[in-house]
Amino acid sequence: MTIKEQLARGYLWLAAFVFCGLGTALLIWPTEILSSVEIQFDSPTAFADIRADYGGCILGVGLFLSWCAAHRHLNRPGLLCVGLVFSGYVIGRLLSRLIDGTPKRIIFILITVEIGGALLAFALYPCAPKSKSPDQQD
Q: Is residue 137 assigned to a domain?
């Protein structure tokens, strides 16, 4: 594997680790983590939805990214997923800025991290190994 391929795969593993870790943390401690962005909930129904939408979904993305990182021929789809997920977060936050007004500083920090994450994923995409036909996969 070339150095560029190793960088692409390494970034994919890092993203998988972050998504799995954050998803797991949000399943266990949603109140503590989401208080920094002023999300509040006070019923079992709200907790169930928050744990599913934030924790479960993010954990699911992390598991998918782990699978992609573990299989060379899936590194490109994994990087594309990282770039698109981060881009979706950025679009949502910027749209909210236009519709709802100026949020607290934490949102701008998150936007910066997400833009950087998306740009890095898209930049590393061409460095990852190209997919092979199903009979040639690892």
A: no
Look at the chain and count its residues. 138
- What number is the average pLDDT over the span 65-85? 97
120 domain-assigned: yes
| Domain limits for position 13 | 3-125
Please answer whether residues 14 and 137 qualify as being in contact, where contact means their C-beta atoms are separated by less than 8 angstroms.
no
What DSSP string describes the chain? --HHHHHHHHHHHHHHHHHHHHHHHHHH-HHHHHGGGT----SHHHHHHHIIIIIIHHHHHHHHHHHHHHSGGGHHHHHHHHHHHHHHHHHHHHHHHHHH----HHHHHHHHHHHHHHHHHHHHGGGSPPP--GGG--
Answering whether pTM is above 0.85, one says yes
Determine, yes or no, domain membership for 134: no
Q: How many domains in the chain? A: 1
pLDDT at 134: 56
Which one-letter amino acid corresponds to residue 83? G
Does the residue 132 lie in any domain? no
Q: What is the tens place of the pLDDT at every residue in 96-106?
A: 999 999 999 99
